[in-house]
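Hello again,

I reread your note about wanting to compare the complex against the isolated chains. To keep things tidy I'm splitting this into two emails, and this first one only covers the full assembly. Below are the input lines as submitted, including protein chains and any nucleic acid or small-molecule components. They are followed by the predicted structure of everything together. The single-chain runs will come separately.
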Amino acid sequence: MSVTMIIAIDGPAASGKSTTAKIIADRLDLLYLDTGAMYRAVALYLSAKGIDSADENALRSALEDIDIYFQQIDGSYHIFLNAVDVSSDIRVPHITKMSSEVACIREVRERMVEMQREIAGGHDVILDGRDIGTVVFPNADYKFYLTASLDSRALRRFKEQHEKGIDCDLSEIRVQLAWRDENDSQRAFAPLKKADDAIEIDTTHLSIDQQVEGILQVITATTGERQ
Ligand code: DC
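Full-complex prediction:
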């Protein structure tokens, strides 16, 4: 029987989940699944097609038409929406905001969770998101919940954007992050919350290396042979 390992990383926006998850995926040779990118892809699709997410029929048929897959190209992760690489398009501010809005819709969540389980199926995998340890894989082998103060998350996101040459405003980023925290944690379906059995790591004063090492120590303490 083949046994797979599932690692769930949840937490608020910009808490370092994806950077950490990608490094761990690389170190332990796991499949990496960025579930936030999938909600962003749905938002992009609805926005590009001018579909009103309140129109149930239009939304249902849109969800049937959406195909999402990931590919690693030259070491970086790309997301394809109906065979088009949308990795950059999903990161613009209005799609970021809209992704949090569409993530409140039950039908969208059900379809994404179904896709996430399909993509992860049969693989050793690390997933990051908001509901991985609570809903998508409640029986995950390891669950981590990363947090950080709003100020430090805003500053990280600001520096990240700045390094990419994107013009941005720190206080505006802070406002947007606070809005998403609230929207993601107050929604009715699968809200952002720590699973009871998740290990919480406050990354406010940690470097990425320290975050990664902390998580790897927990994993290798029980599965040393995998290293
Ligand atoms: O991780 P991210 O910032 O790229 O996610 C974008 C939005 O998608 C986030 O604000 C909430 C939603 N999301 C979700 O509801 N559930 C997930 N598992 C991942 C993301």
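For quick reference: Residues 13, 35-37, 39-40, 99-100, 103, 129-132, 180, 184 surround 2'-deoxycytidine-5'-monophosphate (CB under 6 Å).

B.
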